[in-house]
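Researcher: Next sequence.
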Amino acid sequence: MLRFLYTCLLTLVAPVLLLSLYKKRPGVPPVGKRWKEHFGFSPRVQGHQPLWIHAVSVGETLAVTPLIKVLKARYPTLPILLTTTTATGAEQAARLGELVEHRYMPLDFPWALRLFLKKQQPRALCIMETELWPNTLAAARQAGLPVTVLNARLSERSCQRYAKVQPLFHLLANHLDRVLCQHRDDADRFIRLGVPSQAVQITGSIKFDISLPEGLIQASTALREELGSQRPVWIAASTHAGEDEQVLEAHRQVLASHPDTLLILVPRHPERFDAVHALCLQHGFTTARRTQPETLLAEQQIYLADTMGEMMLLLGACDLAFVGGSLIGDKVGGHNLLEPAALAKPVLTGPSYYNFTDITTQLLNAGGAEVIHDSKGLAETVTRLLESPETQSQMGQAALAVVNANQGAIERTLTALTASISAR
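Model: Next structure:
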């Protein structure tokens, strides 16, 4: 009965969800003729009984990419079906080439999922992080699929929200065979909500198993030459509305003492690229866009990264990094600090990082990261670090050491997935 009521509610809100998915936005690729896949009408993937991995959007697709590469290297004949909900996720999945076949994830309607499963006939379902949908899990269980949550994380806030609808969470938990958690606090929260302890395992975060793409260092060095190898460069990565203004104010203060400094500004969402560009101009900064390579970069104060999937390249070209989603109260809860850490960059974050508490705490304790509280603190810290290459190096190496000490999650995840891979 509870799932029936949920499906009725989903039917009412589906038009809003679809409008969000299909609305044209600058910088966001269209779903186009593939819209039918959201209703279960998708071409069958090549190969027999693929391993189905679901990653919602860009972040999850990037996170699962290292695991997919190792899977294909170890099981070259294993077909992998990768689903995403968003078009930006589909665009990122396309970069994996022949490693996977991509399909859009059906909306959580029972009939759409039955169509999808009948066509694809996967051997198992692996869900990245915590993208749990009642009808999807029920359909997978009905089809006899083992269901594993990969890289599972559950913030305290989400845990408290699930606790308010405990019967609904039990509906989800009853269909989970394995929950492979990033950290102990994530595991404790899942168990607290009623997931059997024997189904919960701590494998670590796949995101720690970062391997630098071939040619990344050379490409980042070349980009730094374009930006100016002799000038200071810092990056504000994954910024949100209300945060860009604080970053710009901090940059203005940095320029007062270091007038040749360049800020690489990377808004979190592509639909904001134009608005952030206009904001930079309104604040009086000379600004270049990455999509306009003809601009003379040496004369610019801000380099707006209005592309997707290039974060590692951009991080490699900077001296230090501020990671956003952390300076706008508790709206977002921060973003992952591991990419700059893996590149041995000093990392700065705002005080709100509850979604990545364990990772951030490790970096803070090791001296690889610092917390700043406002634009003034950001400006002062950036200035101090730019004036001390030795401190930059010490922080960067400390951050890298944390990443290296936590690697191995992919191997532990593969061990846990062995039964699912060989299923059927």
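Model: The chain has two domains: 27-209+407-421, 216-405. The first strand starts at residue 51 and ends at 54.
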